[in-house]
């Protein structure tokens, strides 16, 4: 719902207020409704506000609590803030606003860093203890809300986006070879805490960092489901699991209606977003606004799924909005989408989300989205192959299925100075797969996808593209209680019925069967997938620009080979290699990184 920024000094100098102001101003799209700045001693905070809860000025930030001697900035929404406020009132706390931000401050005063365990929602926040100089940074369990960091021996800066940190200046923008290895191995995903830039890191999901006045800090992860069969669910059959999933999803959707403004739904016509619409209708929502986007077909590739979204909209009587994007708009929209990216993202639907968000933001400020269901409930086509893999071979099977290419392949692509001397991405996967918990190979796969890969690809994508237009996207499938339930669900129930079996069973109770039993769809953007016309020209321009040649990331002969046959080179999972290579360079150039 907002954008935050700030600086902490570890020496005797004052914070660079001008730098904090530049960072704050760069976050204006995330918070078009208000701007605030606070500075005292060694700390300065900036904030841009998107008014969702408590529309009065009482909810403005940075928010100071004079009695508690706390100051904070907050991004996101604590959906159970009303219940927590009543509990805190019962403990003697007094409130001056109706905002969830003040609940966060009072909860920290009451429970310290353990307050995060009580929050249901998506959030990143920074709290300053005025008396001690201690600063606390925290991020929600699934990393839905971002928090980027850049540190030198004398100071720490933080912001809701990487471009905001760049606006502050004095950032090491050299490329991180390990992050680059991940980018090229995992279809543009770079796992926290890394980014492709050596000088920028991100606070991992489900993490609290406590920074002392001298710059030392301690950090802990406060949440991680075990991905084991929990005793309280022993003996549940398929019907009982369907009941439990439907009840948990209903609660998650209901929670995400908390707002002082209308809430809509991004309706693709797939199972996940359609379930959200159905459950909202069950909750008695009337005149629910739904939004769909489609693209012109290219060759035999369809660019929209309007027949399904229209069916759901008619069935539940929603106020439906349909956006058809002509192919010639895609190349123009690409530039805006790249500017909105905190990190390079190669998925085709980035442009779709950016274009759709632009239109949706004209109608509502908050939407629910079906993001995350495929990772949480095993919906992708590669998951069934993990069912028969022995637990000890989980890492090998994952790398064979998920990786874009091998370490040896990367040696053909990258200049030697940017290639790690070993398979660092493979080592990362093996370490995660070897962690305690996760009974089966599929459990281990879903744990890695849900808590690492999803966070820094689809979740980040939705946040960046929607918030660039001041639109808050809420993701009920990433409700932490629903994720815990799904993690405990037997793998065979998730894999049933071609994937997401237990979710499809829930869907059949509330949706038209043709929506549940349709073939799985993906978000196609044919003009990018087929690398032609203006998009290809933009790619060629970026890869042959003086900045690209001076940077020297990719071997020139390899780039020439890609450009000679733009659609011939594919990753193991079928993505266009030229697009993956070019998108990185386009992103670097767009953000002025040399």
From TrEMBL:
Residue positions binding L-glutamine: 100
Pfam families membership: Asn_synthase, GATase_7
EC number of the protein: 6.3.5.4
Catalytic activity: L-aspartate + L-glutamine + ATP + H2O = L-asparagine + L-glutamate + AMP + diphosphate + H(+)
GO CC field: cytosol
Pathway where it operates: Amino-acid biosynthesis; L-asparagine biosynthesis; L-asparagine from L-aspartate (L-Gln route): step 1/1
SUPFAM superfamilies according to UniProt: Adenine nucleotide alpha hydrolases-like, N-terminal nucleophile aminohydrolases (Ntn hydrolases)
GO molecular function: asparagine synthase (glutamine-hydrolyzing) activity; ATP binding
Keywords on record: Amino-acid biosynthesis, Asparagine biosynthesis, ATP-binding, Glutamine amidotransferase, Nucleotide-binding
Major enzyme class: ligase
All residue ranges annotated as the Glutamine amidotransferase type-2 domain in the record: 2-214
GO BP terms, alphabetized: asparagine biosynthetic process
Active site residues according to the UniProt entry: 2 (for gatase activity)
UniProt protein name: asparagine synthase (glutamine-hydrolyzing)
Organism: Streptomyces echinoruber
Gene that this sequence comes from: asnB
